[in-house]
Amino acid sequence: MSTVRIQVSACASLSATVNHLLLRPNAVVSTNNHFSFRTLRKKPLRVSMSSVPTSQPFEIAVKASVTTPNTIGDCPFCQRVLLTLEEKHLPYDPKLVDLTSKPEWFLKISPEGKVPVIKLDEKWVPDSDVITQTLEEKFPSPPLGTPPEKATVGSKIFSTFIGFLKSKDPNDGTEQALLSELSSFNDYLKENGPFVNGKDISAADLSLGPKLHHLEIALGHYKKWAVPDSLTFLKSYMKAIFSRESFIKTRAQPQDIIEGWRPKVEG
Fold first, then answer.
1. What is the pLDDT of residues 110-120, one digit of tens each?
2. Which member of 75, 82, 189, 257 is catalytic?
3. What is the pLDDT of residues 45-66, one digit of tens each?
4. DSSP string, 209-235
5. The whole model's pTM is what?
6. What gap in Å lies between CA 87 and CA 77, rounded to an integer?
């Protein structure tokens, strides 16, 4: 019979990962700032506690809806972070911020008045790029990283969408610029899809998905424009992302997207 010896520092409970290790024969497990696992036949394996999902919800400040009380607003960068938390099955506590009248508590943690901002290791961290990269490093399972050579795929779609949305001249080339980017992305998906990194969703999709949602709603409302049916791989991509449970749970309401873009269209 194998012997298991456990040394536990002041912890309320062991993580699921430690419990899993205890099922292995000839194991010696200890917990402090990290825990280790070793057998008589294998080299020591060290697992950082930072890779174990937290049980405490992350506090995250996000844009509040301007049309519906107590509802997440239309910021695609906020949704990107929320999608990352959802896909990694990490608990979170959203703090809804009225960006038209920023409260004092919010300006203390985000002096520039920008969202999203998340509390990580007792520090408030801004910028969706930094936040999602940090979450990937601290909680690598399930993996959402996108290979560097694929990380910029589709990255120009959002800026060309904004250019077309703001345009008041139908002959200024902004529509064609958007169509060119969408067509290139459609061709990429045809060869490499269904997602940017192949069969599994990754950080690139969680960034692009909310922006495509804004594109669909805003251009449909203000331009009576839709993604051409000929871009079949792009349309399938959008459907696949928009129908994910994580996306449905964190998406902005159409009326918020419409109101959010109104100043750029009419201003």
1. 999 999 999 99
2. 75
3. 333 334 445 579 999 999 999 9
4. HHHHHHHHHHHHHHT-----TT-HHHH
5. 0.80
6. 15
